[in-house]
């Protein structure tokens, strides 16, 4: 299969997945939570195996404790997907708030005399910090849709980019 055809096919699938996630953000959010839980579970099992399989490994105890934490976290998220969803949403809210505050700091360090850069950073920081506060103040209301909506936006963006790349590649072939 040519690269252009591959990009077009994967782009179309990403767009379809993005539309489905946009229509059903709660289910996309739960799927993301399940994926995170399964990943933690898998990493915990592999980490515990590594900690006990190699007796010469430095810091085996720390690796084992960290792996055990991942294992427990994975089991907890998979056993309590709604609570896991809220926990992941709160973490995203913290991330948005912190990045927003950092952009505001950078904007004021850059100064108003720099023109558009200041205003773009200021606006971006206000939006991110505001979104972070909104998520942190209302986690139960935002959890069912936030992760799914972000996944939808990413899939739509990636799908459009892959289709554009596929079309560009088709012209050069």
Automatic annotation (TrEMBL):
Pfam families xrefs = DUF308 (PF03729)
Q: What name does this protein carry?
A: DUF308 domain-containing protein
Q: Which PANTHER family match?
A: PROTEIN HDED
Q: Which InterPro entries match?
A: Acid_resist_chaperone_HdeD, DUF308_memb
Superkingdom of origin organism = Bacteria
Q: What is the lineage of its organism?
A: Bacteria, Pseudomonadati, Pseudomonadota, Alphaproteobacteria, Rhodobacterales
Give a yes or no for keyword Signal in this entry. no
- Transmembrane regions listed in the UniProt entry: 31-52, 61-79, 85-106, 118-139, 145-169
Q: What are the UniProt keywords, alphabetically?
A: Membrane, Transmembrane, Transmembrane helix
């Amino acid at each position: 299969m040519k690269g252009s055809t591959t990009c077009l096919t994967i782009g179309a699938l990403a767009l379809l997945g993005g539309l489905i996630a946009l229509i059903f953000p709660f289910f996309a959010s739960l799927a993301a939570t399940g994926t995170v839980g399964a990943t933690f579970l898998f990493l915990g099992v592999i980490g515990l195996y590594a900690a006990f399989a190699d007796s010469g490994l430095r810091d085996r105890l720390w690796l084992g404790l960290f792996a055990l934490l991942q294992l427990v976290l994975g089991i907890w998220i998979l056993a309590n997907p709604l609570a896991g969803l809220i926990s992941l949403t709160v973490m995203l809210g913290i991330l948005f708030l912190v990045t927003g505050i950092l952009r505001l700091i950078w904007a004021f360090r850059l100064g108003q005399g720099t023109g558009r850069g200041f205003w773009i950073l200021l606006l971006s920081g206000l939006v991110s910090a505001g979104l972070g506060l909104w998520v942190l103040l209302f986690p139960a209301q935002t959890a069912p849709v936030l992760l799914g909506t972000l996944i939808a936006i990413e899939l739509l963006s990636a799908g459009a980019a892959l289709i554009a790349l596929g079309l560009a590649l088709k012209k050069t072939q």
